[in-house]
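Cross-posted from the bioinformatics board.
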Amino acid sequence: MEEYDVIVIGGGNAALCAALAARHAVSRVLVLERAPEHMRGGNTRHTRNIRCTHAAADQFFSGPYSEEEHLQDLIGVTGGPANLDLAKMTVRESSKLPEWMSAHGVNWQQPLAGTLHLGRTNRWFLGGGKALLNTYYQTARRMGISIRYDAMIEDLVIENGRFEGVRLRNGETEEFIRGRAVVVAAGGYEANIEWLKKHWGDAADNFIIRGTPYNDGMLLAALLKKGAKAIGDPKGFHAIAVDARAPKFDGGIVTRLDAIPFGIVVNQLARRFYDEGENIWPKRYAIWGGLIAAQPGQMAFCIVDSKTIDCFLPPMFKPFQANSHEALGAALGLDPKVFSETVAEYNRASAANTEIRIEVLDGACTRGIAPPKSNWAIPIDRPPFYGLPLRPGITFTYMGVAVDERARVLEQSGRAFANVYAAGEIMSGNILTKGYLGGFGLTIGSVFGELAGREAASNARA
Amino acid sequence: MPGLDVFQEANRQLIICNACRYCEGYCPVFRAIETRRDFNKGDVFYLSNLCHDCRACYYACMFTPPHEFAINIPKILAEARIETYQRWSWPGFLARAFKDRGITVILAAAVAAIVVVLSLLLIPANGLFAIHLGPGAFYEVIPYIAMVIGGLVLFFYAIAVWMRGGARFWSETRSVLHQPGGLKAFASALTAALGLRHLKGGGPGCFYPGDQPSSVRRIYHALTSWGLLSDFVATTLAFIYQDFFHRLPPYAFTSAPVIFGSVGGVALIAGTGGLIWFKLRSDRQPEGAGASGMDYVFLVTLGLTALSGMLTLIFRATAVMGSMLILHLALIAALFLTAPYGKFVHFVYRSLALIHYEIEQRQPQQHVGH
């Protein structure tokens, strides 16, 4: 029978970090990736940068980013982590990541132009997430790590709190692989619409899943069934506004729209429902998925005019376009009268037409309407007018298994399983509760992946 | 996507790239994309010639087939590039050679055959296999005047067709440029072209022949282009020696023409051989339809020209010199006659695209987006 020191379940960033870290201490490491080779890597495929604490500017960071500031950003955006100690540890340990990643072959680049001004806080790997994964897989192969694709896990065998191995399904046959320790880094359950429906009802049918279709949460379900302690709101997720014409799965970055602070957003009733200029976009982009999910039909429309249409990243799908408010409303399938009233009301309340400087809060706010638009509230008055249909784009879910500071999965009693570790999305709920901080998903995955791999390996040697 | 021509399909893909931008660090193509919102034919002409086919973006892209977005930038730009080669070549019936490899091969073979036949007719029967030594030895096989006239005619014909194509490239892509770029832009483009800067794949190297970056292809390419330059220098030096200093070839092994010539020849043989070897093993997915045939014809002609030159040098004191020389001259004739109708043209358009890029980057324009 096949036996490994460490079995890593999953194939994304957290899983590969775990496998690489484990391989430094033990010789027999197996990665079980559910997806076929060309789809390997889970949601890491769609990432492009990682948030890291660092003391000073360097070739790739434009300035320092202290532990305190990093933690404050996390607390500010997420409303406080579920487990403050783990959040602090993640922020602290993130300072070691650039060096560790470079040592495992990762190449870097300058921050991308036209993105969310993350050049000081986040580090950009050359070519984005799939390139990062290619590098890690090539490094893993060079280090003698075994990798299996299309690995369908039937069950985790855990007896008396101790992991014994995994049962794999190969078509009609089953296979058992023994392992001395396991790292579960198999992602969230955002691609499992039925699971989402348990918490969101039929609204989940209208969600767009931005990443891999393989994150069905089977391993999370298996761990919970074996008595792992759940942590996090089952409705919690990182979700943004994406173009409603995006594919159901795997549309990635290109369906995302950054137009909202430049205009207004209305729902299917042609009414505004939230302050589009509440704060700078990097601090607000991650709330719009949830906001749209709460609207009728899980649908919204961002409206801009010819003054601002060229100010945001050019969208993949052509905006709807018309020369009058009524005509645009009709083109978007909205009640033209209500729609033009909404725009007219906003225009009357808006500030004077000025140049928009989107990176600072300009205080150009609406007067006397609800909801207000607190910044960049210039009128939508220069045709042609443009409309972009929006839906919630789910990046990943937060509910997961509780872990301790050694990345060990906890049982409901609070005691840790003997040799079961978790990393990545599947345990992100220990830190993320709501909201999102750009590039922090990879920070969690990398810190906990490396930690889980190291701990699992030392456990396997014992 | 079915139903779209090359330029529509390139436009479709480039719009998706512009919404993504993950590949910005790899090469100028993506930085040039970011200064645009839509991609007309002129943009695609320009971008396709700016692409060095390093393939880094193909392996980094999460939207390559079978993903429904079906992004494959090296492939579509290679196909657009072939369209531009044909579009800007002249005359039309020969320009079709970019799509129909048979024309190039027939052209090359025909001119080579003409050279061989004429040579054999001109040479006295006992001259071909005789041993010729001392100054003017080569001209005892082929008369000097025939060599010079034939060479110059073919050389300037190629240059003329290239220049005509270059002018078309410039007029059809230059609409975005509002001001001249100055010497700095030109110098930067020149060093990028000579140093093959953009075959670095953003740092780690070309993703060629497979999915792992390496600098080997860049080295093979550098051996080829620098080898060719070295041989060009050797030829020019020999011309100067002969017509200004009245020193007839063959020259000593330690003379400048022979040193430049043989260094260039060896580099060319190694470079073209390496490129062919890599091409044979390369990933077919990111390859443009029809691109590799064109590449092979050029690489083989160039490699054989260098090889025959080296053999002429090695055997110049023996009875086979005459045959080798005729073969070498026939291959040079084939190389130059097909130069405007094959992969050779890429250096013209890529150099111009690099100049275009360096000027464009110095314009006071802005990246689209915030």
